[in-house]
Amino acid sequence: MNIQHQYLVNFCFFFAIIFHSWSLHAKEYLILGSEQQGWKALIDSRNGTLQQYEQRINDVWEVIPFRKDTLAGPSWKGINLSPVAIQPNTFAAEVDGIRYMLQYLPMTDHLVVECKLTNLREKNYEPEYSRLILGIDSEMRTFPEWDTKFFPTLLRCEKNFTWGYFMSPRQIILAIGVEEPVACYTINYVYEGLLKWKWGHQVKTASLDLLHCLPLPERHPQNMYPLKPGETKNWNLHLGGIEELSDVKKTLSQWIQTPMIECDKYTITEKEKCRLLIHSRYPLKNLIIKSPNDVLTELPVDTLSENLYTAYFVPLGQNGIFQISATALNDKTAETNIYVRNSWSWYMKNARDFVAKNPPLFSNSCETFYGYYTAFLGARHFPDAVKDQMLEARFCRTLPLLIDTLSGIPKIEAAPDRIQNFSSLIGMLVDLWETTENLSYLEKAAQLGDYLCSEKIQSHDGAYRSKGTHYTAVIYPAKSMLELVRAEKKFIGQSKWKERYDRHKKSAYKAIDDLLMRLDDIQTEGDMTFEDGMITCSALQLALRGLLEKNTHKRKQYADAAIYLMNKHRCLEQLLIPDCRMRGATLRFWEALDIYFVPNQIMNSPHGWTAWKIYASYYLYLLTGKVYYLTDFMDTLGACAQIMDLNGNLRWGFVPDPYIKAQVCSERRDKRQDWYPVDSIVGEQYLDMISPWLRPDDEYSVCSFGKRGGSGDNTVQEIFKAMEECTLTSAYVVIDEKGNIQCWNCSAWKDQGVIHIVPDESMITGIHLNTSRKVKIETNLAGKHIRKNIFPGMHWLGNKPLLIE
């Protein structure tokens, strides 16, 4: 299905929904807004829940669907409201001495819901939480219906307000904002209770916990509990469509009268500075920065225009997270975090050392042995004879557990239908060959390539399949094949290798051409949904194929398809969050089982698989030259890198959910290697790795996923694989038409008509230049002095990354 056909199908589907929905019986519904105002809300006149919200966006009426089941909203959880006769658009109920109320207040361009809670008792009201279910339908079960659902892309509680937005794959945005403090938010996942797991890759909707007990993250209000006798609390919830992501902060700052901060970079080095833009309806009172050692400094602020301010942050000679708070004259305060990182080589070295200390285990899931990527890439750049030889020997000793090392055929106990195990193994073997130059490793990789090419795995349409299910976008088997092809190219003078090269290249290209035809009409592992990895893995392989294509027309086809998918994927990305720990990260919520966490759904943002998005944005930058992709992949990599703390400790991932009651896998204190669940409260924090201590008695056996030795937390190693490919040896410089310079992984400045570039590290061997004007540059790469004129366009100085040579 091509992109144009896809849009036609979607248009017809959306039109049918609109026609049906607004033909409902008028007496049962209250309609607010109008065509002239550009928005309309359909409200159930019996209980006050929104049935549907429409907004005119880019001159098209867009539908934001609301649920009709027990998670319909806005509604107080467990409370049935009724209309209040003497108050228009008002619904209320009194239950056990607590009065609940919702009143709809139409604004010029959006809807406000006033939420009111009154304690009529003579004692404190002390619930664990008082929850307002938003009811926006987020359940993305099937293609193409998921295009009409709205994911809770960003929810953020500040000290005295809350904001965020829901977004559909079609990039339609429903913004929300609450003028008053909200204690907490909750994502309504699909699961049943703490001990009764129900697998599912779905989010149903999201809720605001207007009151909530402690503990809560530090940034959240800490005084929203309890409600005293006779006390009433009000919250004004704003709902409305916004045309562009770039307008969300500006618009919400006006709706809820708060400052909103945006930075041009969220991860920087000690040599860089960061520019802040602050939208605020009221003038700023101050801008305070708190260093990692809690030293407070006030930043000077400049006024750019009405409601827009700017400031610059320069690191204070210290690495870590700097917290910046902007307070307006109405005392509303917004926060942002900026991370001052170490060198990329520091993270790679520490990641390799982690693998050496905690050697990978082979199982029927590649997630457990993903650390071999880091081991072999680390050995290439930072050789250490003792560590490297130990890891290589261990790999060779355990490899026969997965495959027949003579034929390359996967063994039954290694789950041969789980093809990502063996495509990943191809990539590891190629990396080991490049590090050691031992051709036997490339031989084994080629045999596995033949397995992927076989009729058992690759169907006539080109898709790699597992038991008939489309698996080309489960991790990235076609990218792994292209890594093999690039290695085999060195030997195409030999007929055996020429045949392998042609066969594997044809297989990878055929698989990617199938992705080009299908776009997001594909499948994934586990429960179907509009799944983060399914989309990013498809996009990254399409974009990589575009980079390798010489034909301009075909190159554009691959680029356009990748752009189409990544545009849709924005509803699953932290693109506006003002927090370096999550900026750019993807939103995943089904890896918690990897660390034995009950319930089995929490948000992981970032997580190791977030790195798939890094590849996609990186390749799209090299294809298009759009600086957005460069900034995005650098912010995303910066967020991912923070999974390793500044002491070199590696964690599993970051949990942005503010309050999750859970049982977390913990190490026993009696020195046994078994684990036990510990009742815990998890919120806006990193979770540690468990694989270092949850190891089997026999480490030279195939572990089972979910058992001792089968924990999947080494997905985190994908971050370092992406880091090595995209940034470890490469720097980036952008020069616009006015001569302004932006740079990453280097310093650059103009002096007497020459742009001087100094790489951040001596191991940088390539500089990517993207210039809109003719320039003269001077630099040193790998000990070689370079001085030359560069014409407009994109160019590599020195070495290109291996995969796109």
Give a description of the structure.
The protein has 14 helices and 40 strands. By secondary structure, the chain is an alpha+beta fold. It has four domains: 230 residues, Distorted Sandwich (Beta-galactosidase, Chain A, domain 5), CATH 2.70.98; 71 residues, Immunoglobulin-like (Sandwich); 383 residues, Glycosyltransferase (Alpha/alpha barrel); 75 residues, no CATH class. It is globular. The two termini are 31 Å apart. This is Alpha-L-rhamnosidase six-hairpin glycosidase domain-containing protein.
Descriptive tags:
4 domains, alpha+beta, Immunoglobulin-like, 805 residues, Beta-galactosidase, Chain A, domain 5, single chain, Glycosyltransferase
Strand content: 25-35%
Largest sheet composition: 8 strands, antiparallel
Q: N- to C-terminal separation?
A: 31 Å
**Structural class of the helices, strands and pairings?**
alpha+beta
State the CATH architecture of the largest domain.
Alpha/alpha barrel
Overall pLDDT confidence: 92
User: Which radius of gyration do the C-alpha atoms yield?
Assistant: 27 Å
CATH fold category name of the largest domain: Glycosyltransferase
DSSP E strands, number: 40
Query: In what order do the strands lie side by side in the largest sheet?
Result: 6-7-8-9-16-13-12-11
Low-confidence stretches: 13-26, 192-197
CATH C-level name of the largest domain: Mainly Alpha
Report helical residue fraction. Answer: 25-40%
Q: Which geometry do the CA atoms define?
A: globular
Task: Tally the helices.
Answer: 14
- Count structural domains: 4
